[in-house]
Amino acid sequence: MIDWRTVSALLAGAAVSSACTIPTEPLGNNIAYPFRAQVQNATRPEVHNLYMNLLEAGGGDRHLFIGPVGVPTYDLTLVDGVINHVPNGVRAVIGGEIDHTTKLFMTGRGDYRAVFQPTYACNPDTDELQIELHFVTWQNQPTGGHICVRHAFENSHEFRYSPPGNTLIDVDRECIKVTLVVLPTTGLPPQSTTLSTSTIPATPSTSTTSTTPTSTPTGTTPSGAFTDLTAQGYRFLGCAPEERWTTDGPFRTLSGATESSDDMTNQRCAAFCTAQGFKYAGTEWRRECWCGNTVAATRQPATTLASLATCDYKCTGDQAQFCGGDAWLSLYERCEAGAVCENVVFT
Ligand SMILES: *[C@@H]1O[C@H](CO)[C@@H](O)[C@H](O)[C@H]1NC(C)=O
């Protein structure tokens, strides 16, 4: 294993040389010093040189996003090729949801892991030596494929895995192939422990190519994050988890009635649940509507702005609305007759 001092010396040496020289010694697949993961694709400025952030996603899992959502994370490590975040007891895995790509996220559970090989390479902008995490395999799956990022919520991109020979193309949701780069963060302040989109990331002192990700202002709810149904007598409660993101409770958060449609919108779902006599209406996976009369304590949505990020699937019936996500419900509650009907405020 290569230690931090050696890396530091190598990187410093590279900074003063005029061309990138790749060391002949191969890198092991463990990185014990803390690092931040930088995203590079020099032809795609919307993602190039931004960072991988962690977003709490229920059940202790962390979803992986490029800002503005998620928490800047400076203390990743690599264990046998697998990205770990020890403070949260999670490591990078692939799975859960498959459309034209599959989710790359972090969990403490036993999902098949994403395995990387640290590799020396030259920075595409500065030609300085850097350590890249080259994707090797999805554990127990064929070797190959690549990591990509797909536009998600607001300005954010979520991390995905595209398998080898992938021929499924969703023209509306391009997944941009990216390189993950190890930025050692020794000497930087520890990661903030509070989940907030207003966390101001420190600029890694070891990077000469970093771009500080933009952050969203606090106290405002991003426009379009949910559909205002208050005129229809429903208020938005937030993005609520299904069983996959929790540790107990029923399989379905809303188990009263359901329908699925190419014309799904939040209005349609609320009207459907009202007609069926239910109090709660939730849209999910672009085209599903679920109704119920109770929401268990473990399934209550959070009220942080960041928590809205996982309900980022556009409705099949209206691309300007979000209809939940991958095992996440855009959750609405019917207002009491005569009472003030207001959406939850997200901070
Ligand atoms: C940048 O993204 C495009 C689109 O996914 C891809 O074709 C290209 O190979 C990527 N470049 C790098 C260096 O990953």
Write a structural description.
- There is one protein chain.
- The strands form three sheets. Strands 1, 2, 3, 4, 5, 6, 7, 8, 9, 10, 11, 12, 13 and 14 form a 14-stranded antiparallel sheet that branches.
- The protein folds into two domains: 4-184, Trefoil (Acidic Fibroblast Growth Factor, subunit A) (Trefoil); 197-334, no CATH class.
- With 347 residues, it is mainly β.
- Helices cover 7% and strands 35% of the residues.
- Mean pLDDT is 82; it is low at 12-18 and 187-220.
- Bound molecules: 2-acetamido-2-deoxy-beta-D-glucopyranose.
Summary tags:
5-stranded antiparallel beta sheet, Trefoil (Acidic Fibroblast Growth Factor, subunit A), 347 residues, elongated, mainly beta, binds 2-acetamido-2-deoxy-beta-D-glucopyranose
> Compute the gyration radius: what is it?
21 Å
Fraction in beta strands: 35-45%
Low-confidence blocks of residues? 12-18, 187-220
Number of helices: 2
Subcellular location: Membrane
Pfam families: DUF7909, WSC
Organism: Parachaetomium inaequale
Region (Disordered): 190-224
At a glance:
The chain is mainly beta and 347 residues long.
Please specify the SSE layout and strand pairing.
Blueprint: H1 4-16, E1 31-40, E2 50-56, E3 62-66, E4 71-72, E5 76-79, E6 82-85, E7 90-98, E8 102-107, E9 114-122, E10 129-138, E11 146-151, E12 157-162, E13 175-177, E14 179-184, E15 234-241, E16 257-260, H2 266-275, E17 280-284, E18 288-292, E19 314-315, E20 318-322, E21 328-334
Antiparallel strand pairs: 1-2, 1-5, 1-14, 2-3, 2-4, 3-8, 3-12, 5-6, 6-7, 7-8, 8-12, 9-10, 10-14, 11-12, 11-13, 15-21, 16-18, 17-18, 17-21, 19-20
Bound molecules: 2-acetamido-2-deoxy-beta-D-glucopyranose (NAG).
2-acetamido-2-deoxy-beta-D-glucopyranose (NAG) binds at residues 41, 43-44, 176-179.
